Description:
This protein is an alpha/beta fold. It has two domains: 2-197 and 389-406, Glycogen Phosphorylase B (Rossmann fold, 3-Layer(aba) Sandwich), CATH 3.40.50.2000; 206-386, Glycogen Phosphorylase B (Rossmann fold), CATH 3.40.50.2000. The protein is 43% helix and 19% strand. The radius of gyration is 21 Å and the shape is globular.
Amino acid sequence: xxxxxxxxxxxxxxxxxxxxxxxxxxxxxxxxxxxxxxxxxxxxxxxxxxxxxxxxxxxxxxxxxxxxxxxxxxxxxxxxxxxxxxxxxxxxxxxxxxxxxxxxxxxxxxxxxxxxxxxxxxxxxxxxxxxxxxxxxxxxxxxxxxxxxxxxxxxxxxxxxxxxxxxxxxxxxxxxxxxxxxxxxxxxxxxxxxxxxxxxxxxxxxxxxxxxxxxxxxxxxxxxxxxxxxxxxxxxxxxxxxxxxxxxxxxxxxxxxxxxxxxxxxxxxxxxxxxxxxxxxxxxxxxxxxxxxxxxxxxxxxxxxxxxxxxxxxxxxxxxxxxxxxxxxxxxxxxxxxxxxxxxxxxxxxxxxxxxxxxxxxxxxxxxxxxxxxxxxxxxxxxxxxxxxxxxxxxxxxxxxxxxxxx
Length: 407
Protein backbone atom coordinates (compact mmCIF):
# COMPACT_ATOMS: atom_id res chain seq x y z
CA UNK A 1 0.00 0.00 0.00
CA UNK A 2 0.91 3.65 -0.40
CA UNK A 3 0.41 5.33 2.96
CA UNK A 4 0.64 8.95 4.09
CA UNK A 5 1.04 9.94 7.74
CA UNK A 6 -0.21 13.46 8.52
CA UNK A 7 1.03 14.42 11.99
CA UNK A 8 1.49 17.52 14.12
CA UNK A 9 4.64 16.02 15.63
CA UNK A 10 7.83 17.37 13.97
CA UNK A 11 9.67 14.46 12.37
CA UNK A 12 13.20 15.43 11.43
CA UNK A 13 14.95 12.08 11.67
CA UNK A 14 12.89 8.95 11.06
CA UNK A 15 15.40 6.88 13.03
CA UNK A 16 14.73 8.76 16.27
CA UNK A 17 12.65 6.74 18.72
CA UNK A 18 9.07 7.89 19.30
CA UNK A 19 5.47 6.71 19.06
CA UNK A 20 5.09 8.12 15.53
CA UNK A 21 8.58 7.39 14.21
CA UNK A 22 8.45 3.78 15.44
CA UNK A 23 5.07 3.15 13.80
CA UNK A 24 6.11 4.80 10.53
CA UNK A 25 9.24 2.63 10.35
CA UNK A 26 7.09 -0.43 11.01
CA UNK A 27 4.94 0.33 7.96
CA UNK A 28 8.06 0.91 5.83
CA UNK A 29 9.71 -2.30 7.04
CA UNK A 30 6.51 -4.21 6.24
CA UNK A 31 6.87 -3.29 2.58
CA UNK A 32 4.63 -0.24 2.24
CA UNK A 33 5.51 2.97 0.45
CA UNK A 34 5.40 5.64 3.16
CA UNK A 35 4.99 9.42 3.00
CA UNK A 36 4.97 11.80 5.96
CA UNK A 37 3.58 15.34 6.25
CA UNK A 38 5.00 17.12 9.29
CA UNK A 39 5.22 20.76 10.50
CA UNK A 40 8.34 22.91 10.74
CA UNK A 41 7.63 25.59 13.32
CA UNK A 42 8.52 29.25 12.80
CA UNK A 43 11.31 29.17 15.41
CA UNK A 44 13.17 26.57 13.34
CA UNK A 45 15.18 27.60 10.32
CA UNK A 46 14.12 26.17 6.98
CA UNK A 47 11.45 26.20 4.32
CA UNK A 48 8.73 23.85 3.12
CA UNK A 49 10.43 20.99 1.27
CA UNK A 50 10.41 17.28 0.48
CA UNK A 51 13.27 15.03 1.50
CA UNK A 52 13.90 11.30 1.31
CA UNK A 53 15.01 9.64 4.54
CA UNK A 54 15.65 5.90 4.64
CA UNK A 55 13.07 5.10 1.93
CA UNK A 56 10.46 7.40 3.48
CA UNK A 57 9.37 10.64 1.80
CA UNK A 58 9.03 13.48 4.33
CA UNK A 59 7.21 16.69 3.43
CA UNK A 60 8.16 19.33 6.00
CA UNK A 61 5.68 22.23 6.00
CA UNK A 62 6.58 25.67 7.33
CA UNK A 63 4.05 26.73 10.03
CA UNK A 64 3.67 29.16 12.90
CA UNK A 65 4.90 28.04 16.32
CA UNK A 66 2.63 25.32 17.65
CA UNK A 67 4.44 24.39 20.86
CA UNK A 68 6.20 26.47 23.52
CA UNK A 69 4.41 29.64 22.49
CA UNK A 70 1.62 31.92 23.68
CA UNK A 71 -2.00 30.88 23.33
CA UNK A 72 -2.73 33.42 20.56
CA UNK A 73 0.01 32.15 18.24
CA UNK A 74 -0.89 28.54 19.02
CA UNK A 75 -4.54 29.21 18.17
CA UNK A 76 -3.55 30.95 14.93
CA UNK A 77 -1.21 28.07 14.07
CA UNK A 78 -3.98 25.51 14.59
CA UNK A 79 -6.35 27.46 12.34
CA UNK A 80 -3.82 28.04 9.55
CA UNK A 81 -2.14 24.64 9.48
CA UNK A 82 -4.93 23.01 7.47
CA UNK A 83 -4.48 25.38 4.54
CA UNK A 84 -0.67 25.23 4.85
CA UNK A 85 -0.66 21.42 4.73
CA UNK A 86 -3.19 21.36 1.89
CA UNK A 87 -1.18 23.82 -0.20
CA UNK A 88 2.05 21.86 0.33
CA UNK A 89 0.45 18.50 -0.49
CA UNK A 90 -1.05 19.86 -3.71
CA UNK A 91 2.34 21.28 -4.71
CA UNK A 92 4.67 18.43 -3.78
CA UNK A 93 2.48 15.29 -3.78
CA UNK A 94 0.02 16.05 -6.58
CA UNK A 95 1.28 13.11 -8.62
CA UNK A 96 1.20 10.60 -5.77
CA UNK A 97 -1.58 8.16 -4.97
CA UNK A 98 -2.40 7.30 -1.36
CA UNK A 99 -4.33 4.17 -0.41
CA UNK A 100 -4.43 4.99 3.29
CA UNK A 101 -4.20 8.19 5.32
CA UNK A 102 -3.15 7.89 8.97
CA UNK A 103 -3.37 10.96 11.16
CA UNK A 104 -3.64 11.89 14.81
CA UNK A 105 -5.13 14.45 17.16
CA UNK A 106 -4.02 17.04 17.93
CA UNK A 107 -4.97 18.91 15.83
CA UNK A 108 -8.62 18.45 14.82
CA UNK A 109 -8.33 21.23 12.24
CA UNK A 110 -6.99 19.24 9.26
CA UNK A 111 -10.39 18.44 7.81
CA UNK A 112 -9.84 20.21 4.46
CA UNK A 113 -6.52 18.43 3.94
CA UNK A 114 -7.89 15.02 4.87
CA UNK A 115 -11.07 15.48 2.80
CA UNK A 116 -8.96 16.46 -0.22
CA UNK A 117 -6.68 13.41 0.03
CA UNK A 118 -9.60 11.06 0.62
CA UNK A 119 -11.65 12.45 -2.27
CA UNK A 120 -8.76 12.64 -4.75
CA UNK A 121 -7.41 9.14 -4.05
CA UNK A 122 -10.49 7.29 -2.79
CA UNK A 123 -8.29 6.69 0.26
CA UNK A 124 -9.28 4.95 3.45
CA UNK A 125 -8.73 7.02 6.58
CA UNK A 126 -7.52 6.06 10.05
CA UNK A 127 -7.55 8.44 13.03
CA UNK A 128 -5.21 7.81 15.96
CA UNK A 129 -7.09 9.66 18.69
CA UNK A 130 -4.45 10.99 21.09
CA UNK A 131 -6.42 13.97 22.36
CA UNK A 132 -10.10 14.89 22.72
CA UNK A 133 -10.49 18.56 21.84
CA UNK A 134 -12.24 20.94 22.57
CA UNK A 135 -13.44 19.14 25.72
CA UNK A 136 -9.94 19.08 27.21
CA UNK A 137 -9.82 22.88 26.90
CA UNK A 138 -13.27 23.14 28.51
CA UNK A 139 -12.10 20.98 31.42
CA UNK A 140 -9.14 23.28 32.06
CA UNK A 141 -11.23 26.43 31.86
CA UNK A 142 -9.59 27.62 28.63
CA UNK A 143 -12.83 27.51 26.62
CA UNK A 144 -16.34 28.08 27.95
CA UNK A 145 -18.76 25.30 27.16
CA UNK A 146 -21.52 26.52 24.87
CA UNK A 147 -19.55 29.55 23.70
CA UNK A 148 -19.17 30.41 20.03
CA UNK A 149 -15.59 29.15 19.93
CA UNK A 150 -16.64 25.89 21.63
CA UNK A 151 -19.42 25.44 19.10
CA UNK A 152 -16.97 26.10 16.24
CA UNK A 153 -14.37 23.57 17.37
CA UNK A 154 -16.99 20.98 18.30
CA UNK A 155 -18.35 21.26 14.76
CA UNK A 156 -14.87 20.61 13.35
CA UNK A 157 -14.37 17.69 15.76
CA UNK A 158 -17.57 16.03 14.53
CA UNK A 159 -16.50 16.55 10.92
CA UNK A 160 -13.15 14.89 11.64
CA UNK A 161 -14.89 11.83 13.08
CA UNK A 162 -17.16 11.69 10.03
CA UNK A 163 -14.17 11.78 7.65
CA UNK A 164 -12.49 8.95 9.55
CA UNK A 165 -13.27 5.40 8.41
CA UNK A 166 -11.70 4.04 11.60
CA UNK A 167 -10.86 5.63 14.96
CA UNK A 168 -8.15 4.07 17.08
CA UNK A 169 -8.41 5.14 20.73
CA UNK A 170 -5.72 4.95 23.41
CA UNK A 171 -7.83 2.90 25.84
CA UNK A 172 -11.29 1.43 26.34
CA UNK A 173 -12.32 4.47 28.39
CA UNK A 174 -11.54 6.62 25.34
CA UNK A 175 -13.73 4.41 23.14
CA UNK A 176 -16.57 4.59 25.64
CA UNK A 177 -16.25 8.37 25.97
CA UNK A 178 -16.27 9.01 22.22
CA UNK A 179 -19.31 6.83 21.63
CA UNK A 180 -21.23 8.30 24.59
CA UNK A 181 -20.67 11.91 23.55
CA UNK A 182 -20.90 11.31 19.79
CA UNK A 183 -23.91 9.03 19.22
CA UNK A 184 -23.63 9.63 15.46
CA UNK A 185 -20.47 7.47 15.39
CA UNK A 186 -21.02 3.79 14.68
CA UNK A 187 -19.33 1.63 17.30
CA UNK A 188 -17.91 -0.56 14.51
CA UNK A 189 -15.53 2.22 13.43
CA UNK A 190 -13.97 2.60 16.89
CA UNK A 191 -11.41 0.36 18.55
CA UNK A 192 -8.58 0.38 21.08
CA UNK A 193 -5.25 1.15 19.40
CA UNK A 194 -2.98 2.39 22.19
CA UNK A 195 0.25 4.37 22.17
CA UNK A 196 3.00 1.99 21.16
CA UNK A 197 6.73 1.69 20.58
CA UNK A 198 9.40 -0.65 19.34
CA UNK A 199 11.03 -2.02 22.52
CA UNK A 200 14.83 -1.87 22.66
CA UNK A 201 16.86 -4.24 24.81
CA UNK A 202 18.80 -2.67 27.70
CA UNK A 203 22.53 -3.30 27.25
CA UNK A 204 23.92 -0.88 29.83
CA UNK A 205 26.07 -2.41 32.58
CA UNK A 206 26.63 -1.40 36.20
CA UNK A 207 29.69 0.69 35.38
CA UNK A 208 27.78 2.76 32.80
CA UNK A 209 24.93 3.29 35.23
CA UNK A 210 27.32 4.60 37.88
CA UNK A 211 28.85 6.96 35.33
CA UNK A 212 25.44 8.35 34.41
CA UNK A 213 24.55 8.96 38.06
CA UNK A 214 27.88 10.69 38.58
CA UNK A 215 27.41 12.86 35.47
CA UNK A 216 24.08 14.20 36.74
CA UNK A 217 25.18 14.31 40.39
CA UNK A 218 22.56 11.81 41.48
CA UNK A 219 23.26 10.37 44.96
CA UNK A 220 24.46 6.79 44.60
CA UNK A 221 22.10 5.27 47.18
CA UNK A 222 19.02 7.39 46.49
CA UNK A 223 15.85 5.93 45.00
CA UNK A 224 15.30 7.97 41.84
CA UNK A 225 11.83 9.12 40.71
CA UNK A 226 11.69 10.48 37.17
CA UNK A 227 9.13 12.56 35.29
CA UNK A 228 9.79 13.03 31.60
CA UNK A 229 7.46 14.83 29.22
CA UNK A 230 5.26 17.88 28.78
CA UNK A 231 5.16 20.45 31.57
CA UNK A 232 1.99 22.33 30.71
CA UNK A 233 -1.42 23.02 32.19
CA UNK A 234 -2.81 19.54 31.35
CA UNK A 235 -0.20 17.98 33.64
CA UNK A 236 -1.32 19.90 36.73
CA UNK A 237 2.19 21.13 37.49
CA UNK A 238 1.11 22.93 40.68
CA UNK A 239 0.56 19.55 42.31
CA UNK A 240 3.91 18.23 41.04
CA UNK A 241 5.55 21.24 42.72
CA UNK A 242 3.61 20.50 45.91
CA UNK A 243 4.96 16.94 45.86
CA UNK A 244 8.54 18.14 45.38
CA UNK A 245 8.13 20.65 48.20
CA UNK A 246 6.65 18.04 50.52
CA UNK A 247 9.60 15.69 49.88
CA UNK A 248 12.43 18.26 49.69
CA UNK A 249 14.00 17.15 52.99
CA UNK A 250 13.85 13.43 52.16
CA UNK A 251 17.46 12.55 51.36
CA UNK A 252 16.62 8.92 50.62
CA UNK A 253 14.96 9.84 47.34
CA UNK A 254 15.87 11.99 44.34
CA UNK A 255 13.58 13.54 41.72
CA UNK A 256 14.43 14.14 38.07
CA UNK A 257 12.05 16.38 36.12
CA UNK A 258 12.73 16.69 32.39
CA UNK A 259 10.46 18.44 29.95
CA UNK A 260 9.23 21.61 28.36
CA UNK A 261 6.01 23.54 28.22
CA UNK A 262 4.20 26.61 29.43
CA UNK A 263 4.65 25.70 33.11
CA UNK A 264 8.37 24.89 33.00
CA UNK A 265 9.48 28.28 34.35
CA UNK A 266 7.13 27.86 37.29
CA UNK A 267 8.79 24.64 38.38
CA UNK A 268 12.24 26.08 37.66
CA UNK A 269 11.43 29.07 39.87
CA UNK A 270 10.39 26.79 42.73
CA UNK A 271 13.65 24.86 42.40
CA UNK A 272 15.78 28.01 42.59
CA UNK A 273 13.86 29.59 45.46
CA UNK A 274 13.66 26.44 47.57
CA UNK A 275 17.11 25.04 46.79
CA UNK A 276 15.65 21.61 46.19
CA UNK A 277 18.77 19.55 46.82
CA UNK A 278 17.03 16.27 46.08
CA UNK A 279 15.72 17.34 42.68
CA UNK A 280 17.18 17.89 39.22
CA UNK A 281 15.19 20.06 36.80
CA UNK A 282 16.12 20.05 33.11
CA UNK A 283 14.27 21.61 30.14
CA UNK A 284 15.42 19.24 27.44
CA UNK A 285 17.54 16.21 26.64
CA UNK A 286 18.30 14.52 23.34
CA UNK A 287 16.26 11.31 23.08
CA UNK A 288 19.41 9.16 23.24
CA UNK A 289 20.51 10.93 26.44
CA UNK A 290 17.06 10.59 27.99
CA UNK A 291 17.00 6.89 27.14
CA UNK A 292 20.31 6.49 28.97
CA UNK A 293 19.28 8.56 31.99
CA UNK A 294 16.02 6.72 32.56
CA UNK A 295 17.97 3.45 32.89
CA UNK A 296 19.41 4.62 36.22
CA UNK A 297 15.99 5.58 37.60
CA UNK A 298 13.81 3.47 39.87
CA UNK A 299 10.25 4.80 39.52
CA UNK A 300 8.41 6.70 36.78
CA UNK A 301 5.87 9.43 37.54
CA UNK A 302 2.74 10.61 35.70
CA UNK A 303 0.73 13.73 36.55
CA UNK A 304 -2.55 15.01 35.08
CA UNK A 305 -4.85 17.85 36.11
CA UNK A 306 -7.65 16.53 38.31
CA UNK A 307 -10.30 18.57 36.45
CA UNK A 308 -10.21 16.39 33.34
CA UNK A 309 -13.43 14.63 32.40
CA UNK A 310 -11.83 13.10 29.30
CA UNK A 311 -9.84 9.87 29.82
CA UNK A 312 -6.27 10.92 28.92
CA UNK A 313 -3.65 8.20 28.61
CA UNK A 314 -0.09 9.69 28.67
CA UNK A 315 2.46 8.22 26.25
CA UNK A 316 5.30 8.67 28.79
CA UNK A 317 4.02 5.48 30.43
CA UNK A 318 5.70 3.51 27.63
CA UNK A 319 9.29 4.49 28.45
CA UNK A 320 8.76 3.59 32.10
CA UNK A 321 7.43 0.14 31.24
CA UNK A 322 10.16 -0.41 28.67
CA UNK A 323 12.82 0.28 31.30
CA UNK A 324 11.19 -2.07 33.80
CA UNK A 325 10.44 0.56 36.41
CA UNK A 326 7.10 0.80 38.25
CA UNK A 327 4.82 3.81 37.95
CA UNK A 328 3.28 6.34 40.32
CA UNK A 329 0.35 8.24 38.81
CA UNK A 330 -1.54 11.22 40.21
CA UNK A 331 -4.40 11.99 37.83
CA UNK A 332 -8.08 12.76 37.41
CA UNK A 333 -10.67 10.07 38.05
CA UNK A 334 -11.74 9.81 34.41
CA UNK A 335 -8.70 8.05 33.01
CA UNK A 336 -8.55 4.26 33.10
CA UNK A 337 -4.79 4.46 33.69
CA UNK A 338 -5.57 3.54 37.29
CA UNK A 339 -7.17 0.27 36.18
CA UNK A 340 -4.17 -0.62 34.01
CA UNK A 341 -1.67 0.10 36.80
CA UNK A 342 -3.53 -1.62 39.62
CA UNK A 343 -5.03 -4.63 37.80
CA UNK A 344 -1.68 -5.55 36.28
CA UNK A 345 0.34 -4.67 39.40
CA UNK A 346 2.65 -2.26 37.60
CA UNK A 347 2.19 0.80 39.77
CA UNK A 348 0.18 2.87 42.23
CA UNK A 349 -2.46 5.56 41.64
CA UNK A 350 -3.81 8.44 43.69
CA UNK A 351 -6.02 11.35 42.72
CA UNK A 352 -4.21 14.53 41.71
CA UNK A 353 -4.18 16.87 44.70
CA UNK A 354 -4.08 14.06 47.27
CA UNK A 355 -0.71 14.72 48.90
CA UNK A 356 -1.20 12.02 51.55
CA UNK A 357 -2.04 9.41 48.93
CA UNK A 358 0.94 10.08 46.69
CA UNK A 359 3.28 10.39 49.69
CA UNK A 360 2.19 6.92 50.79
CA UNK A 361 2.92 5.56 47.32
CA UNK A 362 6.33 7.25 47.18
CA UNK A 363 7.20 5.75 50.56
CA UNK A 364 6.06 2.26 49.46
CA UNK A 365 8.46 2.29 46.51
CA UNK A 366 11.35 4.08 48.20
CA UNK A 367 11.50 1.53 51.02
CA UNK A 368 10.90 -1.69 49.10
CA UNK A 369 13.39 -2.62 46.36
CA UNK A 370 11.78 -6.02 45.75
CA UNK A 371 8.42 -4.37 45.12
CA UNK A 372 10.01 -2.01 42.58
CA UNK A 373 11.66 -4.88 40.73
CA UNK A 374 8.54 -7.07 40.71
CA UNK A 375 6.22 -4.34 39.46
CA UNK A 376 8.83 -3.20 36.92
CA UNK A 377 8.96 -6.68 35.42
CA UNK A 378 5.15 -6.87 35.40
CA UNK A 379 5.12 -3.59 33.48
CA UNK A 380 7.60 -4.77 30.89
CA UNK A 381 5.57 -7.92 30.31
CA UNK A 382 2.42 -5.83 29.86
CA UNK A 383 4.23 -3.56 27.41
CA UNK A 384 5.44 -6.41 25.20
CA UNK A 385 1.95 -7.92 25.12
CA UNK A 386 -0.05 -4.72 24.49
CA UNK A 387 1.98 -1.64 23.55
CA UNK A 388 4.28 -2.56 20.66
CA UNK A 389 4.19 -1.05 17.16
CA UNK A 390 3.64 -4.54 15.79
CA UNK A 391 0.42 -4.68 17.78
CA UNK A 392 -0.68 -1.23 16.52
CA UNK A 393 0.28 -2.12 12.95
CA UNK A 394 -1.77 -5.34 13.07
CA UNK A 395 -4.80 -3.51 14.49
CA UNK A 396 -4.73 -1.05 11.58
CA UNK A 397 -3.93 -3.53 8.84
CA UNK A 398 -6.59 -6.07 9.76
CA UNK A 399 -9.18 -3.77 8.18
CA UNK A 400 -7.37 -3.62 4.86
CA UNK A 401 -6.32 -7.25 4.72
CA UNK A 402 -9.96 -8.18 5.24
CA UNK A 403 -11.03 -5.83 2.45
CA UNK A 404 -8.39 -7.31 0.12
CA UNK A 405 -9.56 -10.86 0.77
CA UNK A 406 -13.15 -9.86 -0.03
CA UNK A 407 -12.28 -8.22 -3.37
